[in-house]
Amino acid sequence: MTPFHRERHVADRIGWLRASVLGANDGIVSTASLIVGVAAGGASRGTVLLAGVAGLAAGALSMAAGEYVSVCSQADAERADLAREKRELEEDLEHEQDELALIYQGRGLDPVLARQVALQLMDHDALGAHARDELGLSEIHTARPLQAALASAASFAVGAAVPVAIVAMVPAAQRVPLVGGSALVLLALLGGLAARAGGAPVGVAAARVTFWGALAMAATALVGKLFHIAV
To answer: pTM (2 decimals)?
Structure first.
């Protein structure tokens, strides 16, 4: 007998990984950009720090709410699809058997074998077979609103805490370059780690997220310079 071989895949990480990466990335970019813009406008340390802390709190809660609402909408759509599929199985079982057999034929099985597979899978779990092979739903990809909200909020707060901490510790003259530089380094590391966890090219992901972060901070710095109102 062939020894049991446990394979490791990344598909089961998609839900929390997406929310965490999005939250941390947004926490770094939005908070660092806010701080850079306010600091470039000549604001005092206290004002810049207040802006950063307020941005951290508002952003974390906003990310949590946004993730929760959007993933709840996904979960509602999944439940509606499953309810409709369950009703169709009760009302026209033979049609649903034919439908599943055609799906397997499209994947390369001959008609006889495709129907045998469809019948056996439906005997075991008809709704599960249609959810997986007709609707594309599975346990791995099931929407988890609370998990997504918590992951997004926590990662946003962690990402945003770095530029806020830098503002609290460094002199005014070094504030903008240190916040901007540290944010770009963190974004590159985050992009690389996320790509590694997801099995994607590290260099491309790091460069992509760093470019957009630099663009966001440059834009807010320009706004600050244009207004340049010391508070």
So the answer is: 0.68
